[in-house]
Amino acid sequence: MEAVVNQLPIGLSIGAVLLLIALGLTFTFGQMGVINMAHGEFIMAGAYTAYLLQGWAGRQAVLVALPVAFAVAGIMGLILERLAIRHFYGRPLDTLLLTWGVSLVLQQLARDLFGAPNVQVQAPTWLQGGMGILPYNRLFIFALAVGSVVAIWGYMNRTSQGRRMQAVMQNRQLAAVSGINTGRVDQRTFFIGSGLAGIAGVALTLIGPVGPALGTYYIVDAFLVVVAGGLGRLGGAVIAAAALGLLNSYAEFWTNASLAKVIVLVVIIGFLQVRPQGLFVLRARALT
Amino acid sequence: MRNPAWRVGAAAAVLLTGLAACGGGSSATEGGSAAAGGGGDTIKVGLLHSLSGTMAISEVTVRDSELLAIEEINKAGGVLGKQLVPVVEDGASDWPTFAEKATKLIAQDKVATVFGGWTSASRKAMLPVFEKRKALLWYPVQYEGLESSPYIFYTGATTNQQIVPGLDYLKEKGKKKLFLVGSDYVFPRTANKIIKAYAAANGMEVLGEEYTPLGHTEYSTLVNKVVQAKPDAVFNTLNGDSNVAFFKQLKSAGVGADTMPVMSVSVAEEEVKGIGVDNIAGHLVAWNYYQTTDNPANAKFVEAFKAKYGKDRVTSDPMEAGYNSVYLWAEAVKKAGSTEVEAVKKAAGGIALERPEGTVTIDGENQHMYKTARIGVIEPDGQIKEVWNSGKPIKPDPYLKTYPWAGGLT
């Protein structure tokens, strides 16, 4: 019984990890319709940023790396958007292939730069230990996920830049004729979306491997959260991440890890049959 | 109202799942230099490991040590007066790719022999290729036994040289209740069958048995199950990057090596670096070789490896077995006077070499090696300290015929 109760916070903490890796995608995939397969590699870039900063920040590297990784991954995203993706707007399947290619290139680049074996990022000493079943590093990730959601919500709803972003998302043409520079908004959206992946990467160094293949382990889950939550919906992503985290945790607890993955996928497919647009639907007169 | 984006999204999610299941790795290939196939004054040998994907973390290091052995042999005059030319291929952590690349190495490059593989799944994929084409594979990693192909030389440990000694050690230390954790493929599942048979015959109890897909990184639920079951020890057959996530999450759940030691059979010096020694210090491993193994051949190997690849690199059991494979094959070729497969096979039996792990002798019957089993504990500096060894090389017994409790296993 105790174990069953323990699965609740475990499920929520899995949800926090899912939310963190999916947040950036709700921007780039959800709001811009760009299927960015290289999102996982931006996560990887964040993780390696923490690794590199260890040189002078030592055990506090994880903390120092948060803003740096945001900038590093954000700039990588910006470069990708400027050089390639902007030529493919409105062609989601082409973008998928393009960004998949980019993700392979980035993985191999990491392998050449840092070597194929995993590297180690030391966790700060104040993140060792934990409360009950939940380790402090999980609570840290939870806080980071909540903090990111609040920051994004504030940005979207309380700043003029954020409102412009929403305007472009809801109706690109109308936003453009209203004098909004949609190209610039796209750049900004991509910068933030990719930057959030960098932050997720830093957080993942606390619980997972840091290696060239890191991105591939999380990209599928990230897409599942965004699709189930409803494209571009922050609230949908939060609820979907929590639900998938709990589903994962209990499915694995009562069966096993392999079967849990199957169960989660079947539930999502079933759910999308009933609500093909996800949990939350963006209400607007026209889209794309 | 209707947004077609969700359709694409759903399709992408499904597609992605498929891609990830395939390993999701890149497929970079390093072609070898083009030399005349077999003839002339060079001999081509194939190296087939995953240089990308989830297994690259481990397999790249074996390729490195095999290249070192080839370089050393060439410096010493080559084999039969001919220089060895390595042809390196990438198995990409994808089992059908291994079969495909093996075919390519044999049929197109016409290599004299292939050194390759890590996971049993990759070996099982390559086996029919080598048997059909009557070519030779040297497989350098410990595995689950119950196999003896006439076209494979197994230079890593079979179960009675690694898993059984590991269990003997746990039994000796009074660890009676075990929890089994492994990756979901042939090696862990077969290894756990053997462990359960051993446990039943030796008064030990298996409290749980859990498998996770290769590349799995979320272990909080599994750790919760292990903690609730309260075993004396965990027997870990996870492979690849999953080990990092498992040990990090076990450590942060407050489970230490003093209360619940984990005995691992796929974690060596190289993996310890990636896991972070903080997270794994004090836990146990079972192998036949450690970087700290004390003998002149090992001192020479470690020095040569560091000179070629850098001071901060480490050597590990599968790397040493890969390194040995090249030397053992070269010795067999010298003895046979030819690289012809049947002649090499016939000559190989009984060859004994002083290797970094000690004396290694080829068993001509099952083509496995006599190897010394060693149990080690991971030290705070990332090295592994030997705490027990079998004293002398153990005769390989891949089918565990000499162990009465293993009667029901196939």
Features:
heterodimer; A: 288 residues; mainly alpha; ABC transporter involved in vitamin B12 uptake, BtuC; two-stranded antiparallel sheet; 11 helices; 2 strands; globular; B: 410 residues; alpha/beta; Rossmann fold; seven-stranded mixed beta sheet; five-stranded parallel beta sheet; 13 helices
Q: Would you give an account of this structure?
A:
The complex is a heterodimer of chains A (288) and B (410). The model of chain A has no long low-confidence stretch (mean pLDDT 89). A two-stranded antiparallel ribbon of chain A has the order 1-2. Chain A has eleven helices and two strands, in the order ααααββααααααα. With 288 residues, chain A is mainly alpha-helical. With 410 residues, chain B is α/β, with parallel strands linked by helices. Chain B has two domains: 42-157 and 296-370, Rossmann fold, CATH 3.40.50.2300; 160-287 and 373-406, Response regulator (Rossmann fold), CATH 3.40.50. In chain B, the strands form three sheets. In chain B, strands 7-6-8-9-10-14-15 form a seven-stranded mixed β-sheet, with helices on both faces. A five-stranded parallel β-sheet of chain B has the order 2-1-3-4-5, sandwiched between helices. At the A-B interface, helix 1, helix 4, helix 5, helix 9 and helix 10 of A face helix 1, helix 2, strand 7, helix 7 and helix 8 of B.
